[in-house]
Design a protein that fits this description.
27 strands; BirA Bifunctional Protein, domain 2; RNA-binding; 27% strand; Rossmann fold; Translation Initiation Factor IF3; alpha+beta; 11-stranded mixed β-sheet; 5-stranded mixed β-sheet
RNA sequence: CGGGGUAUAGCGUAGUUUGGUUAUCGCGCCUGGUUUGGGACCAGGAGGUCGUAGGUUCAAAUCCUGCUACCCCGACCA
């Protein structure tokens, strides 16, 4: 019996949902917009955490933990911040439940337990952190503060999608404080580069570094740097952000330091984050019609070994060999799972591990025992190879490298192919409509133009590519693709998640 | 918030138009046996307040009314 699932080109979003559920990453929870991340999904998140955490620590950051709940009054300080987040806050107003009637099970809120001040479940932690930094910072000697926290946040979303947009998400939020503007900007860029390296080297997701246009930046920031990745369906996914907050929060929370000359100045700050959305991006970048494809460096299990046997005696023989192979590989830091469960046939296991995206599968049966070989299968290309036992030690790590590289190159080529420079609105519409992709086009800088383009094509400005933003000299003047008005730079348009 | 779905065993479903014995089938689960190179097979077994509240009726999964929940497609957003 073959368990089918929806193909990408038939119904992309159905494919996406099915792959998440069938591969065991996550499922719906019964609470609207909130998902259960299953062990397999969390194990990927844990790897993401471990790798990124190391990179943060290497650049001088420390971890910290602030509360989940934020008093409403803290939250009301920074104007722009309130404006954007107040629409999607979950608010705690009471702290007790009581039985509605005696001897009945139904519970109601105890009106007596109303809180003096309502508490907001953090949609992000700037407010409580800046309230605290005010106490921590007096002198330039207290700076910089380079902190990060791993936690969760809640934003009451109207429309949710597994991993891509859920009302609760797991994430990492960095919050730094600096004595100079320049240092804060450098920090923002440093983090952007860490994210980029992580995404490209580990997750094999090529990203475009950019700056958000003024109307699209994080509320309360001066500049929002972002990473945009192109998914297989031609839509863009914002996969990481790093904000230069200027002095907005230090002013809102009155955080000043005394500089070396004894003068008081407002602190400069940044914040930056990535979330469980990365897992959504991982799926939509690499996976195919047979299931997940996970780059080896992020795969919870890099190699699975499946025995093929006719009887107990054969299994014992295979297991003996397998244990040795497993040891050899594990000594090199490769994660190996030996699946000798008798309740499933090899065919069942093959399909299961392909669905889960395990990069390499090794199978060993009587044929292999006889020839002292193993059948090695790679998930990314479906290629099968016979490898003799004494070569595995070298072969498998090299193959993992190759797979990692191939997955990245494939995504890179797809992204490059999907990125076009266009000057005519007809071409623009056609491209967006037919294949999607990143389109580099001139923009007159007005919100009105963006609105019109969005209405007509569903595409929006994703970002101003950082190389264009940074290098005034290469700024190219031209005419806005929509209005024909003068433009001095190209921006990236795309449909997005 | 608008539009569309769905709600029956752990999961996926048939039955609902046209009410009628003991609610269908597949997967999964348990027991025993045979199997095992691309989602094995045989035999036996367990498992249900048909989302919820009310109504119509001799009789409701099925008809009527209300309610609730989740999913999908849009508008808002990491």
């Amino acid at each position: 019996m073959i368990r089918q699932f929806t193909k990408r080109n038939k119904d992309y979003s159905k494919w996406y949902n099915e792959i998440v559920i069938k591969s065991g990453l996550a499922e719906f929870s019964g609470v609207r917009g909130f998902m259960i991340i299953k062990p397999y999904g969390i194990s990927i998140w844990e790897i993401i955490k471990t790798k990124l955490d190391k990179m943060f620590k290497e650049t001088g950051h420390k971890n910290v933990y602030f509360p989940l709940l934020i008093p409403k009054s803290f939250f009301s300080k920074e104007k722009q911040h309130i404006k954007s987040f107040s629409k999607e806050c979950a608010v705690v107003t009471h702290c007790k439940l009581i039985k509605k009637e005696k001897n009945k099970k139904e519970l109601v809120i105890d009106p007596q337990s109303k809180l003096q001040e309502e508490l907001i479940i953090r949609p992000t932690s700037e407010s409580i952190i800046w309230k605290t930094y005010k106490r921590w910072i007096q002198s330039y000697r207290d700076l910089p503060i380079l902190l990060n926290q791993w936690g969760n946040a809640v934003r009451w979303e109207m429309r949710t999608r597994l991993f891509l947009r859920t009302s609760e998400f797991l994430w990492q939020e960095g919050h730094t404080a600096h004595s100079t503007k320049n240092e804060a900007i450098e920090e923002t860029k440093k983090i952007l580069n860490i994210y980029t390296r992580f995404l490209e080297n580990f997750m094999a997701i090529p990203v475009l570094q950019g700056v958000k246009p003024y109307m699209d930046k994080f509320s309360g920031s001066e500049t929002t740097y972002c990473l945009e990745a192109l998914m297989q369906d031609g839509k863009a996914l914002q996969i990481g952000t790093s904000h230069f907050l200027g002095q907005n929060f230090s002013k809102a929370f009155d955080v000043k330091f005394t500089n070396i000359n004894g003068k008081k100045e407002h602190v400069w700050s940044t914040s930056w984050g990535i979330s469980t959305r990365l897992i959504g991006g991982l799926i939509m970048s690499h996976s195919d019609d047979r299931g997940l494809v996970i780059p080896p460096k992020i795969a919870p299990i890099q190699t699975v070994i499946i025995p093929i046997y006719k009887n107990r005696k054969e299994l014992n023989q295979i297991s003996e060999i397998t244990e040795k192979i497993k040891n050899i590989l594990e000594k090199q830091g490769i994660s190996v799972q030996y699946d000798d469960r008798d309740i499933f046939t090899p065919g069942w296991k093959f399909n299961e591990y392909e669905m889960k995206g395990i990069p390499i599968r090794i199978s060993i049966g009587s044929y292999e025992i006889k020839h002292e070989k193993a059948e090695v299968f790679r998930r990314d290309t479906y290629e099968k190879m016979d490898v003799s036992w004494n070569c595995l030690k070298k072969f498998i790590p090299e193959l993992l490298e190759k797979i990692q590289n191939n997955i990245y190159q494939k995504a890179l080529q797809r992204t490059n192919k999907g990125t076009l420079t266009l000057d005519h609105y007809d071409d623009f519409k056609k491209k967006i409509n037919e294949t999607g992709g990143f389109i580099l086009a001139h923009w007159d800088g007005t919100i009105n133009t963006v609105k019109k383009i969005q209405e007509e094509t569903e595409a929006t400005i994703r970002c101003i590519p950082i190389h264009i933003q940074n290098n005034v000299n290469v700024k190219e003047t031209g005419k806005c693709i929509y209005s024909g008005k003068t433009s001095n730079q190209r921006v990236i348009f795309a449909k997005s998640y």
